[in-house]
UniProtKB/TrEMBL annotation:
This is ABC transporter ATP-binding protein. CDD domains: ABC_TM1139_LivF_branched. PROSITE patterns: ABC_TRANSPORTER_1 (PS00211), ABC_TRANSPORTER_2 (PS50893). Keywords: Amino-acid transport, ATP-binding, Nucleotide-binding, Transport. Residues 4-236 form the ABC transporter domain. Belongs to the ABC transporter superfamily. It comes from the Bacteria. GO terms for molecular function: ATP binding. The lineage of its organism: Bacteria, Bacillati, Actinomycetota, Actinomycetes, Micrococcales. InterPro entries: AAA+_ATPase (IPR003593), ABC_branched_ATPase_LivF/BraG (IPR030660), ABC_transporter-like_ATP-bd (IPR003439), ABC_transporter-like_CS (IPR017871), BCA_ABC_TP_C (IPR032823), BCAA_Transport_ATP-bd_LivF (IPR052156), P-loop_NTPase (IPR027417).
Length: 237
């Protein structure tokens, strides 16, 4: 069953059209990746799904409901959490305070404790650094914190916008391993990545975005093997 369904959406920044007639879906339990070059519209897509930007035409359905006109904060409560590009953590708050912000829709109850435990299991480094100020963490640690904060809302759909951006290779491997783990624990994921090879390797299905339009779609393996995609995005002719 489709958990998320974008039907022919168009997104504008003022008069600039960033997304044109995009249709895509993410089924319950899937990990789907959206790959594409700089400026293709990946972040714009994530903003449209999370409600930070409005689709000018088309519709967005989530978990059986039309959410096209639903506000961003309500989408969070419905189960859509975004770990934004460039981390977007609160730099002056501690690790624990940042995580609390992700849990703002819940009280400090048993669920809160269980979610916090899940985050600390996935990211032991965050547990060690609970009281450290977010802004003083390394880039990789801040990325972990952004993902951890999104998980505190116990999302049905986790939106990950370029989690590997700007990280050293050993951190990139670790982040992809953790993304796979989160998925194995039952969270449905839409993953945006420039690191196409690794994203496709863990994805059930993939979409390729070029200048605001989807040009290829298929299973992760099909897209990995597609000669045109290989040449354009995977660094092999
Ligand atoms: P990157 O990997 O570089 O972040 P992306 O695929 O996420 O790229 P977007 O950030 O979604 O791409 O940008 C898509 C298009 O929309 C680009 O042409 C970009 O210049 C334009 N755009 C993005 N943000 C704005 C904005 N705030 N105002 C005007 N145009 C914008």
């Amino acid at each position: 069953m489709a958990l998320l369904e974008l039907d022919d959406i168009t997104v504008h920044y003022g008069r600039i059209q960033a997304i044109t007639g995009m249709s895509l879906s993410v089924d319950q339990g899937e990990i789907v990746t959206l790959i594409g070059a700089n400026g293709a519209g990946k972040t714009t897509t994530m903003r449209a799904v999370s409600g930070l930007l409005k689709a000018s035409t088309g519709s967005i359905r989530f978990d059986g409901d039309d959410i096209t006109k639903v506000k961003a904060h309500v989408r969070v409560v419905r189960g859509i959490s975004l770990a934004p590009e460039g981390r977007g953590i609160f730099p002056n708050m501690t690790v624990l305070e940042n995580l609390d912000m992700g849990a703002y829709t819940r009280k400090r109850d048993k669920k809160y404790a269980a979610n916090l435990e899940r985050v600390f299991d996935l990211f032991p480094r965050l547990a060690e650094r609970k009281t450290q100020t977010g802004g003083t963490m390394s880039g990789g640690e801040q990325q972990m914190l952004a993902i951890g904060r999104a998980l505190m809302g116990e999302p049905k759909l986790l939106l990950l916008d370029e989690p590997s951006m700007g990280l050293a290779p050993q951190f990139i491997r670790q982040i992809f391993k953790i993304v796979r783990q989160i998925h194995e624990q039952g969270t449905t994921i839409l993953l945006v990545e420039q690191n196409a090879n690794q994203a496709l390797a863990i994805a059930d299905r993939a979409y390729v975005l070029e200048s605001g339009e989807i040009t290829h779609r298929g299973t992760g393996a099909e897209i990995l093997a597609d000669p045109a995609v290989k040449e354009a995005y995977l660094g092999v002719a």
